[in-house]
Amino acid sequence: SSNPLLSCSPSPMRGPLLAAAGGAMGGAGGPLASTIRAKLTAALQPTHLEVRNDSPRHGGPPGAETHFGVLVVSGRFAGLPLLQRHRLVHEALRAELAGPLHALQVIARTPQQWQSDPRAPPAPPCLGGSKRERRRG
């Protein structure tokens, strides 16, 4: 089933990409993006990490940090099913998910999976809406 709180990106991992490869922490971004990058790096020692702020696509004010997509490539994911990989990401960002982070799209791969196919899958379709919006119907 699809989740309306996920990314509305029209194409794979496009938008303000804040990439860090091989441990290098490059890229710009707001404080929440920096926190996400730092916490995922500390928890998962990724060999590749992309943090994408999708907030502008959700009608937030300029500079909003509420909707993100992350692509995490980590050896910690080896042998784990997808659900367990997502749980590791969510655990690392528990405080943010309980507060300012409204939606998070997670792509979690092992280094071997990333090496064989270094592309992010397309983001799920945007179904609109937010927690503050009342649904009709």
Q: State the end-to-end CA separation.
A: 19 Å
Compute the average pLDDT.
Answer: 77
Strand content: 15-25%
Q: Residue share in helices?
A: 25-40%
Biggest sheet features: 4 strands, mixed
- CATH level-1 class of the domain at 29-56 and 75-108: Alpha Beta
Principal-axes geometry comes out as: globular
Query: What's the alpha carbon Rg, rounded to whole Å?
Result: 15 Å
Order of helices and strands: EHEEHHEH
| Total DSSP E strands | 4
CATH topology of the domain at 29-56 and 75-108: GMP Synthetase, Chain A, domain 3
Task: Fill in the keyword field for this structure.
single chain; 137 residues; alpha+beta; GMP Synthetase, Chain A, domain 3; four-stranded mixed sheet; 4 helices; globular; disordered N terminus; disordered C terminus; BolA-like_sf; BolA/IbaG_stress_morph_reg; BolA; BOLA1 protein
Write up what this structure looks like.
The protein has four helices and four strands; from the N terminus they run E-H-E-E-H-H-E-H. By secondary structure, it is α+β, with helices and mostly antiparallel strands. It has a domain of 62 residues: BolA-like (GMP Synthetase, Chain A, domain 3, 2-Layer Sandwich), CATH 3.30.300. A four-stranded mixed sheet has the order 1-2-3-4. The two termini are 19 Å apart. The N terminus and C terminus are likely disordered.
